[in-house]
Specification:
The structure is a single chain. With 189 residues, this protein is α+β, with helices and mostly antiparallel strands. Strands 2-3-4-5-1-6 form a six-stranded antiparallel beta sheet, sandwiched between helices. The two termini are 28 Å apart.
């Protein structure tokens, strides 16, 4: 069943895509001050929306859709990519769209520094090891592209953390947490 959408706006200016749905213009990491930042050990930029949607539905009670659809001919993936993900949480009438980008960790030194500082702030707690293993940065913008669910970005970050086995650095940094910490923060919201 498709997600009920509010009226759609066009892609963010400058976000051009090729025939595979990959961003064809340069993808820059988002400022850590305005995004949930995840460091994943898997270096691939592949978006498996079927898996993402399944995990979101099964473990979070959330419906997800991605725009534009992605294709990976011959198993190839882009070096960096961007998309809009629509998040529909239980009890909401319409989806909220958030912008997601992914780049190799080498292209996002600010993200790694923020994650290292977040791990140091909690005394490591194993998060320091996950940060050092990070080979790809995934970021969920905290600025909503469309819709009215202020918790959609954190919800999507929690879903991605569960799939990518990646720690989350909240906008502005200062700490780092996993899926459990994200769920606790969502519970307080």
């Amino acid at each position: 069943m498709p997600i009920p959408w509010p009226p759609r706006t066009a892609y963010r200016p400058g976000m051009d895509v090729d025939r595979n749905g990959w961003a064809s213009s340069r993808v820059e990491p988002l400022p850590v001050s305005s995004a949930y930042t995840l460091l994943a050990s898997d270096p691939s930029a592949r978006v498996d929306i079927a898996l993402w949607a399944h995990k979101a539905r099964m473990f979070f009670g959330v419906a997800l859709e991605i725009e534009p659809p992605k294709a990976y001919p011959n198993g190839e993936t882009p070096a960096a990519d961007a998309a809009f993900v629509s998040v529909l949480r239980k009890g909401r009438r319409a989806a909220t769209r958030v912008h997601v980008v992914t780049v190799p960790v080498e292209e996002a030194p600010e993200a790694r520094r923020s994650a290292e500082a977040g791990a140091a702030a909690i005394g490591g707690a194993g998060m320091d090891v996950l940060v050092q293993r990070g080979r790809r940065v995934w970021q969920v913008s905290n600025e909503i592209a469309e819709g009215d669910d202020p918790d959609a970005p954190l919800t999507l970050a929690a879903i991605l953390a569960s799939i990518l086995l990646a720690p989350i650095v909240p906008p502005g940094g200062g700490t780092i947490f996993g899926v459990k910490g994200a769920r606790e923060r969502l519970g307080l919201a």
